[in-house]
Design brief:
By secondary structure, this protein is of the alpha+beta class. It has two helices and two strands. The chain has a two-stranded antiparallel sheet with strand order 1-2. β1 and β2 form a beta hairpin. The longest helix is centred in the N-terminal third of the chain and has 14 residues. The radius of gyration is 10 Å and the shape is elongated.
Length: 42
């Protein structure tokens, strides 16, 4: 169950690619923004 949740979260994070790239320039921790709110990037 946890693995499935992680995959879903990963897919949701992929949708906010813009925010993801901004984090790559800094520290890949978490991204605040998007339609669902906070997103953790591992």
């Amino acid at each position: 169950m946890r693995k499935a949740s992680k995959k879903l979260l990963y897919l949701q994070t992929e949708q906010i690619n813009d925010c993801k790239q901004k984090l790559l320039n800094q520290l890949p921790t978490q991204c605040v923004g998007g339609e669902t709110g906070d997103k953790q990037i591992i």
